[in-house]
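Just curious: can you write a single protein's sequence together with how it folds?
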Amino acid sequence: MAGFLAMPAFNRHFGTYSPELKAYAISANTQLIFNLPPLAFAIICSILSGEIGSRFGRRGGYIALGVLSGAGAAIQLGATTTNTIIAGKVVNGAVYGLGAAFVPMYISETAPTAVRGMLVSFLQLSINSGQLIASAINWGSWDLTSRWAYRGPFLAETLVPIIVLTGIWFIPESPSES
């Protein structure tokens, strides 16, 4: 959810005034810092996900995903500094890396062979639908003048961890955990 970088309210609160643009803006270097560390943590956590899944199980991995996802959203929601926003994005990068490994692994271990392909396709549909919904939320709040222009989308990010942490208790254990 990077659409907030273009929001006037976000730029006013976290950017600097540019006389050339006659507006507040986030510098290219700062935008780079907003995006590179989360990607690095996604890569690192996807590499570590096998060890984490073996040590704590798939259910433990899902619980970690839910808690970390909620923490990342909460950190960004309460942020008042650029570094705090970056910290929340780094946590979300870790979630992305872990989720990219845990979810398909869990599907392959628990789903009947006949529906595995459909479930993996549904996973991709869910990811893409989430991105579309996030873009719609950003677009809907873009012209708000208060901090809720960007805090609203961060608040919406808390819905996914609530669903994950509620639903984890209703899915079967992975056979590798038995």
